[in-house]
Specification:
This protein is of the alpha/beta class and about 280 residues long. About 35% of the residues lie in helices and about 20% in strands. It has a single domain, classed as Alpha/Beta hydrolase fold, catalytic domain (Rossmann fold).
Length: about 280
């Protein structure tokens, strides 16, 4: 029986398994964790700032010397059920050197909270960042979001409801939640048909767009690639500006490392979006 598009539940479970065909996922995770530990010990930062009353409503701020700096707020992935801000500190080093404040956001996970509650609390984090931007040395008019996987989904939902977002980078995200109902993710998320549609960024594009980069690894499953391309095309059809990057020789876990590589096209695309790229020659 077909559950979604031309796929049955077994096919969807396979295509939404980001580790499909990946042999170094654990190695990538270990490297990001080790690099993040070094960054957390080394950089000027403010760790575990509360943006709300919940135990997981915390964020880490990595400061830069540039006055009124743009802010890049990162929402980690992990299938809405795992991951944490501590292991996504590694991009802070090149971004703060380039003149941006880097913020890593923690949020509660399923099944402890519903996806609706997750979205609500992430929204509180972006509101906190906007309210405190100037106190951190940042520019409240230049707040940019980035997120990977589940974090890409959450960042896309923030774009639909938060007018303070100046730009976004969505990496390997899920933008249509309807097929997720037929995968193991839904054991924790418990989405029904209506909730899945309501929490699908593809079905709720904002009325006002912002500069957007959508990135996905060429070595990811066909569904992750399709979702990224479909969301990007819908964004452009709305008359908004955007940039699609299907990155060669990258999978769901290795592409995140490009955020810590100042020589990577993805890193440079984010810098350009924040106005920190090289100035054009006269």
């Amino acid at each position: 029986m077909k559950a979604y598009r031309d796929y049955d539940p077994a096919e969807l479970a396979r295509l939404y398994n980001p580790e499909l065909g990946v042999i170094d996922a654990a190695e990538c995770r270990a490297r990001y964790k080790a690099e993040s530990e070094l960054v957390r010990a080394r950089l000027k930062s403010r760790i575990d700032i509360a943006y709300g009353p919940g135990p997981d409503q915390r964020l880490d701020v990595y400061l830069t010397e540039r006055p009124r700096a743009p802010i890049l707020a990162f929402i980690h992935g992990g299938g809405w059920r795992a991951g944490n801000k501590d292991e996504r500190a590694f991009p802070a080093l090149p971004f703060t050197r380039a003149g941006a404040i880097f913020i890593s956001i923690e949020y509660p996970l399923a099944p402890t909270v519903t996806l609706d509650e997750m979205v609500r609390q992430v929204s509180e984090s972006t509101a906190w960042i906007h309210h405190h931007a100037e106190a951190l040395g940042g520019d409240p008019a230049r707040i940019h979001l980035a997120g990977n996987s589940a974090g890409g989904h959450l960042a896309a939902l923030m774009m639909a409801t938060d007018s303070t977002i100046a730009g976004a980078t969505l990496i390997s995200g899920v933008f249509d939640m309807r097929p997720i109902r037929f995968t193991s993710y839904n054991e924790a998320l418990r989405l029904d048909e209506g909730t899945a549609a309501r929490l699908s960024p593809l079905l709720h594009l904002p009325k006002r767009g912002c500069p957007l980069t959508v990135a996905v690894g060429r070595d990811e499953t066909s569904e992750f690639i399709r979702q990224s391309i479909e969301f990007f095309e819908a964004w452009i059809e709305q008359g908004f500006h955007g940039n699609l990057m299907v990155v060669p020789q990258m999978h769901h876990f290795s592409i995140i490392g490009e955020l810590g590589n100042p020589a990577s096209p993805l890193f440079q695309a984010i810098l350009n979006q924040m106005g920190l790229g090289p100035r054009p020659r006269n």
